[in-house]
Amino acid sequence: KVDYDVCSNYGNWLYSAGIGNDPRENRRFNMIKQGLDYDGNGDYVRLWVPELQGIKGADIHTPWALSSAALSQAGVTLGETYPQPVVTAPEWSRHIHQRPGGSPHPRSSKRGPAQHKDRGIDFYFSRKKDA
């Protein structure tokens, strides 16, 4: 069963295209973040993009960022069995090596925005920031 709401779908496409009634400047739809937030394990992508079924977990959202060995193990050859990305937007870069829920990818040494996730809202409004 495919769940489909015509109005919601049309509105989401307009939002993704950067048109509509959202007053923010330079807003961009971040497909990587969206995938991690709503399809953390990649099950939805795996259902509709069978070429990527061999990629485990959230890595399915960024196959172009995987090593040659990981792609080979998954049976994916970029440019042959799955296309190279047409565009990689700069705002995607901070999400490429994250896991669902905002935690960094185990292979990444960078700490993502989730580094303060357990501190609560008071952390952001207090004067002392070294806690």
From TrEMBL:
Residues 2-97 form the Cryptochrome/DNA photolyase FAD-binding domain. FAD binds at D3, Y4, D5. Signal peptide: none annotated. Residues 89-131 are annotated as: Disordered. Binds 1 FAD per subunit. Its cofactor is FAD. InterPro entries: Crypto/Photolyase_FAD-like_sf (IPR036134), Cryptochr/Photolyase_FAD-bd (IPR005101), Cryptochrome/DNA_photolyase_1 (IPR002081). One of its GO terms (biological process) is photoreactive repair. One of its GO terms (molecular function) is damaged DNA binding. Residues 115-131 have a biased composition (Basic and acidic residues). It comes from the Eukaryota. Keywords: FAD, Flavoprotein. It holds the Pfam family FAD_binding_7. Belongs to the DNA photolyase class-1 family. This is CRYD protein. The lineage of its organism: Eukaryota, Metazoa, Chordata, Craniata, Vertebrata.
